[in-house]
Batch of 2 targets.
Target 1
Amino acid sequence: MKKIFLNLGKQPITNSFLNKIDKKTTKNEFFYNLSIGFDKKNFLVSLMNYVNPKKMFNDKYAHRASSSKTMRKSFKVIASKLKKRFKPKKSLEIGSNDGVFIKNFDKREVIAVEPCKNLAKITKSAGFKTYSEFWNKRLAKKIVKSNNKIDLIYSANTISHIPDFKEVFDAASIGLSKNGVFVFEDPYIGSVIKNNSYDQFYDEHAHLFSLLSVSKILSNTNLKVFDVEIIKTHGGSIRFYICRRNSKFKKTKNMKFLISKEIRQGLNKFITFKKFSNRVKKSKKKLIHILKKLKKNNKKIISYGATYKSTTVFNYCNIGTNFIDYVIDTTSNKQGKFTPGKHIPIISPKVGLNDAVDYAFLGAWNFKKEIQLKENFFLKRGGKFITHVPNVRII
Ligand code: TYD
């Protein structure tokens, strides 16, 4: 049973950028209550109420995984690492987005699974075998029937999106070859607690995993975690290496080390999350305080990166065009639109990061380094960034 520890209020679908702002569009905007709970039985942190995946992952899905240099590089590195370590003859990616990971593989040796039709079209037309469907047992059976078993199933920032985690693992079990591995990575709850990055909670993140929770979930299946890594992507992610219980892979030392660390951090206790929730409330107060002060001094504030995360921040803290003039983002299909819920216009950085801007809120704080390097000119001329991670401050 989940017990609630955090309530982030009424939130829209983070991916539903609005084309225009008029009475009809805003009246039809979908909102749900975003509250988060902890399950004492399996140590899993999940949304109290899941949003129907069909509402989120459709043919209008805006996010392009290849839009950041950091992510392009990171997918290239992990693809080469996995090929070297596991030498897979057949690989598959769950949630292949625009193909940023699979393009590092030979087209004959990799399969893409992507339910968003607009994204699946991209990999299909690039010549990759693509299934535009949700990952489940039925699809796994269908794929195995026409392609044999899979040696490597990889997934980044997707498994946490699927409410029914049992179905995910059962499907992996159907798809994997005898010594096949299922490697997936998602934002890490340990980093969220450490960095106070409450904006990792939004409609798409049905769960945020720890090693404790995934080990517990798999304890009554024929799969096991045999290795784990904490990585830097998305402000701290966890990468699991999973295989069949009777496969040749033995548990690594990383496992024992991380389990003890998570117990020390209290990721198995409700009180840890309750304390986190108090810190989140303080973060909201401080952010509003800073923005009010800057506005009083007639400062021009914008936001950098029309991220899903910033949708959570803006709607939870009630930040709209009263504080933020506009959001800048390099993604062309976000430009010209308005942010979900708070309806802040989104424009291109080329136009938006002009000399009149005094402060830019780091909506894409997970790319802080990349952005600081890129926007050296803005910083040199006295422009400043505002962030709320790990605490609210002006950089
Ligand atoms: P992302 O990290 O995927 O965050 P979320 O999952 O919360 O949406 O999104 C980063 C966004 O920031 C994406 O829309 C691209 C944008 N962006 C820029 O506009 N400029 C940049 O230099 C970088 C790194 C990202």
Target 2
Amino acid sequence: MTVGLEITGPFAVITLNRPDKLNALSFEVLRKLDARLDEVASSSVRALIVTGAGNKAFCAGADIEELRHRQLMEQKRGAELGQAVFEKIARLPVISIAAINGYAFGGGLELALACTLRIVSANAKMGLPEIRLGLIPGYGGTQRLPRLIGEAHALDIILTGRTIDAAEAERIGLANRLVDTDVVAAAMAYASEITRFSVPSIGFARDAVRRALDLPVAEGLKVEADLSTLAYRTADAEEGLAAFVEKRKPEFKDA
Ligand code: COA
């Protein structure tokens, strides 16, 4: 199975499973990942964790052998497929965390960029090396990286194609956390810090922040006013406010 899916309690764990090729994203892997995301979207999990099989790589990017000798339109459709699959992750009803356990290059890093958050192990090495192949990133990297870490860092990474280590990734905000323990277990613990809250409110907060990056501030503030009012209308908000006043822990029901 090139892309595994395991449900562990409230979490789905998707594992790219092609360790002999450092979990490189062949088109078959992309299509299986797409199908796995549909399974996650229709399940009742509260968060998704994405990782790579083995202890060497999260994902070494698009399958370079497959990229050779392609017609231009075939290549364009391939980029659109990669973009669509990663956009599906970004738009899942639940948060996603990339558990980066080694190399995350090219499409591998772009996959991690589509996740809500990123956690890296100490041996993680990341980059967008496409420029070294005479290419440029095509699965969302040129759009998501500057939004995440700013134009200057993004241009540095994309134009030099250099490798970023775990410490630098954390320093520049590419990784939210750096851990020296098992990265999938750490990702689950990280997800638990969020999923104990109301899933609808988590979704509203994530959507408000995401829209902020595409809209002028005045428009974004309108979105925030709408989404915060929607959150206020949930039973969970009523419960959260009541629990504070009654000095007890809230019991959220995702409603
Ligand atoms: N596509 C296809 N196969 C890949 C791959 C990719 N992106 N990345 C690694 N592999 C394959 C290698 O060809 C090798 O296969 P083989 O054993 O059949 O020869 C196997 O995975 C192991 O890779 P190897 O290069 O021997 O491991 P390494 O530890 O020496 O180097 C990397 C690791 C990640 C530095 C190196 O594999 C690399 O630079 N990969 C390409 C990264 C990249 O440019 N990604 C963007 C693509 S657009």
